[in-house]
Specification:
Helices cover 59% and strands 7% of the residues. The chain is mostly helical. It has a domain of 87 residues: Fusion Protein Consisting Of Minor Coat Protein, Glycine Rich Linker, Tola, And A His Tag, Chain: A, Domain 2. It has a 3-stranded antiparallel β-sheet, covered by helices on one side. Helix 3 packs across helix 4. The longest helix has 114 residues. The chain starts with a helix and ends with a strand.
Length: 300
């Protein structure tokens, strides 16, 4: 704790006051002792009148002043007489009752001391047993705590192993499912590839046989039949028509590319493609194409 400046000045002032008080007391004691030891000389009070000797010529001589009486002589004190001598007699012999009482008192003291020693020994033994019991309790509690911790650790490890086994089983199951799915997908892909190859082979065979050209000719003829010739159309119209269809022949989109006709002709050709929907199916499903490119060349 920091000492304040005011506390330091108060301590200095108290110290100065205490020392000043001690010095004052010493001076006062010395002055008192000096006053008591000073010898006071007694003075006699004499009244006299000065007279000229010439005026009292023949007078009688003055009577001398009386002297004070001498102090009385103290009476002699008698000398102190010495005390009479004390006879040196030994203590009286104790009686049998006194001896018996003394023996009894001594025996009681010995018994009390013995009981006290026994009580102290019993207290020490009780304290020793209590300490030993407390040490055994502490040891048992420590053992129980260690057993509980070991059991908890074993349970935690068992739980951890069970979780790891569960995770491993789940992972194995997922791996098995993934492998099965991959195998299924691979088999499906192989089957699809096989079907695609077979369809492509059939389509190539159909194209080679002229079936594709025949189907495209049917679609072109159907669109040309659905065409409504606008007044601005002239002879010799040739336009490229892109048609998008879905399985079943429904037309979902139609667009005119290169064309020698005007805008009215182009719009009329797109309208004809939508009116021709659904388009005729191919003779072989392997010939189906979503995107068709048709050369629109109507007869004059």
């Amino acid at each position: 704790m920091t000492e304040r400046s005011s506390d330091r000045w108060i301590s200095i002032g108290m110290s100065v006051l205490l020392h000043g008080t001690l010095v004052g007391l010493l001076v006062f004691g010395w002055w008192t002792y000096h006053q008591k030891t000073k010898v006071v000389t007694p003075s006699l009070a004499i009244e006299a009148t000065v007279v000229d000797s010439r005026s009292v010529k023949g007078a009688a001589a003055p009577t001398p002043a009386p002297q004070p009486p001498p102090p009385p002589t103290p009476a002699p004190q008698p000398e102190p007489q010495p005390p009479p001598p004390v006879e040196q007699n030994g203590p009286p012999e104790p009686t049998p009752d006194e001896l018996a009482q003394r023996a009894k008192a001594q025996q009681e003291q010995e018994d009390a001391a013995k009981r006290k020693q026994e009580e102290q020994a019993a207290a020490v033994e009780a304290q020793h047993q209590a300490d030993q019991k407390r040490a055994e309790d502490q040891k048992r509690q420590a053992q129980q705590k260690a057993d509980a911790e070991r059991k908890a650790k074993e349970e935690a490890e068992a739980k951890k192993r069970a979780e790891e086994q569960k995770v491993a089983a789940q992972k194995k199951l997922e791996d098995d499912k993934r492998k099965a799915l991959e195998a299924q997908q691979r088999a499906q892909s192989e089957a699809d590839l096989k079907r695609s190859l077979e369809a492509e082979d059939r389509a190539n065979a159909a194209r080679s046989s002229g079936a594709l050209a025949s189907w495209e000719a049917q679609i072109t003829a159907r669109i040309e039949r659905a065409w409504l010739k606008p007044p601005s159309a002239r002879s010799g119209i040739v336009c490229e028509l892109d048609v998008t269809q879905i399985p079943g022949g429904a037309v979902t989109n139609a667009r005119v590319g290169e064309c020698n006709g005007d805008q009215a002709v182009r719009e009329s050709i797109v309208a004809a493609a939508y009116r021709a929907s659904p388009l005729p199916p191919p003779p072989d499903p392997s010939l189906f194409e979503r995107e068709l490119q048709i050369t629109f060349r109507p007869a004059d």
